[in-house]
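User: Is it possible to get a 3D structure for a protein together with its bound compound? The compound here is nickel (II) ion. I've pasted both below.
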Amino acid sequence: MATRPILHYPDPRLRTKAVPVDVVDDSVRALIDDLFDTMYGAPGIGLAATQVNVHRRVLVVDVSENRDAPHAFVNPVIKDAEGEQERDEGCLSVPGFFETVKRAEQIRVSALDRNGQSFELRAEGLLAVCIQHECDHLDGKLFVDYLSNLKRQRIRNKLRKQAQSGRGTKARA
Ligand code: NI
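Assistant: Yes, that's possible. Here is the predicted structure of the complex:
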């Protein structure tokens, strides 16, 4: 297992639409392991393969306090989405910024696990937010897309400046 560098907004590679995984093989399991390492190391509560510049539909989440509830999703599909919730969201690809985003309160997601077995999960609250946020990444979408143009522009300019001055690596990844 190894950590991988995380792309930072506005890197255009974050806009790539990830392709489905055909077979959950050792390369996919190695990717899942690296995603967990990178997510826990950051630290963060979710990470999509897109964020480490791998454009396959794989993501991991763990929203538990004790960091002991890992979930890996291959080819996740959100089947149902109900209700509404608003939470402050951050993103390892948008370090240092937290903004309120409106999402579904409850979702039902289907996916393959690390052994290629299909499963379904019902999630609500923070876990539901996190899965929706990570699924967006696989479609090249970021939480800043839900904000006003003005806010998004400010965030983009600040992160660009940080990257240019080399301070980007010090920001909370
Ligand atoms: Ni994110």
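The chain has three helices and seven strands. The beta strands are 46-48, 58-61, 71-82, 85-89, 99-103, 106-112, 118-124.
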